[in-house]
């Protein structure tokens, strides 16, 4: 099982933009495979892509 931490702000964004499972799966899979350190990882792999959706 892969666990991706996500902040409440991003959860609200997912719900408000009605982002579908297949889109989230791709986003989370990319984030999981990232070699970036945690602060940069979250910003570039989770926060920014969700805001651009």
Structural description of this entry:
The structure is a single chain. This protein has 53 residues and is mainly alpha-helical. The chain is built from 3 helices and no strands. It has helices spanning 8-16, 21-33, 38-52. Helix 2 (21-33) packs antiparallel against helix 3 (38-52). The N and C termini lie far apart (25 Å).
Summarize this, please?
The chain is 70% helix and 0% strand.
Shape: globular
Instruction: Briefly note the structural class of the backbone.
Output: mainly alpha
Rg (C-alpha, Å) = 10 Å
State the low-pLDDT regions, or none: none
Mean pLDDT: 93
Largest sheet: none
Count of extended strands: 0
- Kindly report how far apart the N and C termini lie: 25 Å
Helix content: 55-70%
Order of helices and strands: HHH
Strand content: under 5%
Query: If helices are DSSP runs of H or I spanning 4 or more residues, what is the number of helices?
Result: 3
């Amino acid at each position: 099982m892969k666990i991706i931490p996500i902040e409440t702000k991003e959860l609200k964004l997912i719900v408000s933009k009605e982002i579908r499972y297949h889109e989230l799966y791709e986003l989370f899979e990319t984030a999981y495979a990232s070699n970036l350190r945690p602060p940069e990882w979250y910003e570039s792999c989770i926060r920014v892509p969700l805001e651009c959706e």
